[in-house]
Records
---
Amino acid sequence: MSTVAWITARGLFGRRRVLLLLPLPLLLVGLAVLCRSYDVNPADWGAPVLVGLGLAVVLPVISLIVGTGVLGSEVDDGTIVHILTKPLPRRDIILAKLGIAIGVSAVTAAVPLFVAGALADSARLGLGLAVAAVVGACAYSAFFLLLSLLTRRPVLLGLVYILVWEGLLGRFVSGTRVLSIEQYVITIADKIAPTAILEAKVSLTVSVVMAVIFVLGCTLAAVDRLRSFSMAGETS
Amino acid sequence: MTTVELENVSRWYGNVVAVNDISMTLEPGVTGLLGPNGAGKTTVLHMMAGFLSPSRGTVTVDGAPTWRNPEIYRRLGLVAEREAVHGFLTAREFVQASARMQKLPDAKAATERALQLVEMTDAADRRIETYSKGMRQRTRVAAALVHDPQVLLLDEPFNGMDPRQRMHMMSLLHDLGDRGHTILFSSHILEEVEQVSGTVQVIVAGRLAASGDYRRIRRLMTNRPHVFAVQSSDDRRLAVALIGEKSVSGVEIDNAGLTVRASDYGSFTRALPRIAIGEGIRLRKLLPSDESLESVFSYLLEA
């Protein structure tokens, strides 16, 4: 593990913010266990719990907390200067931070989605959701990491993307789905484990290509942005 | 020998000009960057450290531009003014992380050497969040020094340090300067700079107002008396006693107390307590009322 990744991981798990990662996965698994134990028909609870909560809320919100936490909090408190005053290629810094963000988001979202999917239908659905969640974690993390370099309010803008773009516009304006990571995740999970619970609205090709574009585009933009990182003087 | 060079550098934010056409060369040794708050010192330091692009002109370290050039950090260390330490790490971990990111061959040895330099060895295994401001500051200096950089830039390095730590930091900067390092530190406290550095770069309102040996600039101001506000248990009797003192060039008395003009700062401040004790007068307030850099600069600019 690189020193940057080590500091990032220590920073992430050393802050209280990490506790925010626990409630949503627990809620997802808890609801799935509850429905299963009361023998509720999976056709009734599968879509609202797995898609409505799991893919529309748990995955993006966890990625948002982690993705903006790995760099945004260091930019906020000024500790980023400690890392930037080293002769490290900015690409290495971004990749180390992105790696931690993807790893933590993917594990935190994919495991409960696997469990909930397996309880709703089959281990295959669980696996499909978990794989799609990993892809989604990559795209979301790269996007939110870039946001934390573009704006001083990355969490707010991230929430606007999740709630307004994906949650509201994605439901009513079909054209916005091409730029919706949630739709790529649903499509990928649906292709791995076709069930009535998931309803793909974009093609697999669009999903894969756009997910790659999100990851590469946002990563390259973040590297370039970090190269030009400016520090405003408080007394200037 | 490493030099930092600013050539016709300006920096503006929208319509506000923060730094206006500054040219300076920093040679090995300790240089103080002086100026009142808001003069543009931090902007200049950040441009030198590669954290701001100049709107016009060039900033280079040994000919290499500092902007978008991480390689300069092999030769340059920065201690920024803002608190910037990972509180969840210990000082040893923090400094060693710096050594590793610098890819030093023996990171542990370099860490111990840097911690010793700033006298932080004893507390090095405590988390930084438990430190006082002065200890944090020394930890940051250790991290900036771990790779023994040729150039060290420090923004208000004495903030939060107690007098003993301040003295130690001053002698550390002296030593580094004597060993051929190029050290630049910013401060708005004139006496602080006087003790550390002979050479100063003075910035007022974004412009380079004076440059060179501090003592020479200081000498230019000896025709200006130092003004003190004094309050005591018997202002009138104290005024009579003070006017007999050689270093005092004038005394005014009003309802707020005394306004004393002293031609020699050191002689007056030594004489005042002696006179007060001799007269049995209790001093309630002694405030240098024109010691701020702003006043000094207004003298300079008027001269």
---
Amino acid sequence: MAEGSDGPLPLPYSESELQDALGSEWKALLTQGYRWMLFGRLMDNRFLGLQRQGRIGFYGPATGHEALNVGCALALAPEDWVFPGLREQLLALVRGMNLQGYVHHLFGDGMDPSLGRQMPCHPTAASVGYVSMASTVGTQIVQAAGSGYAQALRGKGGITVAFFGDGATSTSDFHAGMNMASVFNCPVLFICANNQWAISVPVSKQTAVTELAKKAKAYGMPGERIDGTDFVRVLSTLRSARKQLSAGKGPVMVEAVVYRMNPHSSSDDPTRYLPPGYLREARAHDPLARLEALGDRLGLLTPEEKERMRKEIEDEFRKAIAEAEVAPPPSPDSLFRDTLKESVWPLTEERDTFDRDQGGHFP
Amino acid sequence: MTDITLIQGVNQALKVAMAKDPDVVVLGEDVGVNGGVFRATDGLYKEFGEKRVLDTPLSENGIIGMAIGMALQGLKPVAEIQFMDFIYPAFDQIVSEAAKFRYRSGGEFPAHVVIRTPYGGGIKGGLYHSQSTEQLFTSTPGLKVVIPSTPADAKGLLLSAIFDEDPVIFLEPKRIYRTSTGEVPEGDVRVPFGKARTVKEGADVSVFAYGAMVPQSLQAANVVEKMGIHAEVIDLRTLVPLDVDAIVASVEKTGRAVIVHEAPKFSGFGAELSATISERCLYSLKAPVLRVTGYDTPFPYALENLYLPSVDRIARGIERTASTS
């Protein structure tokens, strides 16, 4: 697409088009969107760096997915629920997940809301309807159908969003979830973050269909493919999808084409498989650079304001990291909680004999 | 009170729970209009409507995944898997998701689902309508595993399961769905988890069983009684949580233990029971612990009566254990 061009592809919206797409508050939305996307970008840089220094164990960056994360978060209502895939932690932060708690989670310390039980980038945030995730791919898609069913049954509003990547569309749970949601008319927004790579396997090896959104047709569901690096398009598309869902018109699938500008995770080496043109194309679709260029053209923020934003964000991270680095590790006692609501034998006995089992030292 | 069957006990529990709590929903294949292939959900669709009794597409991972999503939202879903042999497409949802949600979320997202499924042989169901694979679930922390053997327990344990706050695998011995009969209390009367039931008292040898092997073991105990051997038969009722105190107390009394289950012997739940008895009761034991189980093969069709522990096989096992000195 953008072979040969070096700068970001322009977002050629006029002020009146922005007004049409986002409403009268479009300026505030672009500013808010820019700030959160910058936040996500700086977060990835910071925490990938900490992983490389051995200060945290793992990190899964979402660089390239920022417009999708932030646009989706701003399109949702507080009562909505999100079943995330791998790269939606920024979305949770925009919805109000506590940054300090999340940084504790990245460090796996005793202040982590999930008590250091999961690898980094697997947060839990019930207060913002962000469901704890498994590392298994696709299981959340069908759970989202059940969540949406429950919301509709209760009749108190709210929709459910299922996030997943291109690789997940090959799983049986994708099929089951899409099918269940459409058979039972559940208010579920299925968002495929198609970054075109499932670790090292390109989307062309996942499916013979060229556009993943076409899969929606097989379930009697509308499916739309959008440029997921265009913040304006993401926000306006997901806002209208949400409107349709809350009117009880059944589930919707949106395929957001994005680029994975960093490795799959801190454990991955993409030089083994990425074709040379991909990163160049990805840079042309850098969602942050594209929104920044639009903002500059419209005179949204001065260079000083942008610099101040960057400093504020870096300060937030610095403070949160400093606090996490002195937090105690999870207490051994936490091993024995939450497997079931009340522990049962033999776990109760294992807890009671823990000190004896762990206490001995051999010469 | 009149006698009802085990499957009617299941049906009554569902009716009582659904009438009491609008958050209880039932979902599965053929559970609605048809009332379930065994009729466990008979009448629910008519009484509670299609929004609370869902005839689902044929998708076990879909059924359990849906149920988990409902549970996270605070509903109390009771999912039916038509035969335990069909549960494996949902294994990922059960083992990776339901069993781990509470733990991995620091308690924020308990995934309380009840998964009812008929298990076990004796109905000429062949390989894929007969298996007994409870050990796959008992060895997964985060699940409770319940197996009733009487109508009263079917009702009371299922009510406990529905109002429990953890995921429960509820295994129904389909072979005795209609042959196990008895009186059942009216209304919401629950049987607590983790309390074994002494079916028959005896001083010579302890027999531990669950599900369809309970009536078989009782018959075997009656056979050996005529030979002067007094077997104590204990119905474990719930494998997780396990009533270890009842097991230990019985073996300390008799000094001998026979374990009966339909599942293959190797790595079966009997291995756990045997290990527990050896860890806790070694100095009370007068004979090696014996397991009477299905053979270590896939489940056969034509020869199922040879595969399943018969009354005779169990009786011989009790006799051998009782006479070892």
